[in-house]
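Side project, low priority. Logging it here so it doesn't get lost.
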Amino acid sequence: MSSIVIDNSIVLAWCLADENDPRAARAMEAVIQQGAVVPAIWWYELRNALVVNERLGRLAAADTDATLADLRQMSIALDRDHDEGILLHLARQHSLSADDAAYLEVVRRRALPLATLDGSLRRAAAAAGLMLFDAAPGG
């Protein structure tokens, strides 16, 4: 059973030194211990974010390769079973991209908390009455 839904703001905080955030560190602990689930779009978004950060000089290609290798060792499941109607409703209601609404749709359908550092996504999840991952250290 997966513990949380993670987005790429969390994953990027794991691999970019200047993006360090204690919420991301706690999310990593949760993923290592209990796994995570992500919408299928995550796979593409992650690789795009890593390549963009390579171009910006924030990551070397070797860092990208190491990050992807590390992530392959984690129990992160791709969810491909989106409810299109709910996804579009969430995107429209909260003025989100379909990509961001996909995270909320997975959170809603699977009744899991969302781990994100994205302020807009956090506000939309809260407004929709969805769970956010905000575990305190050690708990």
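Brief comment: The mean pLDDT is 93.
Revisit when time allows.
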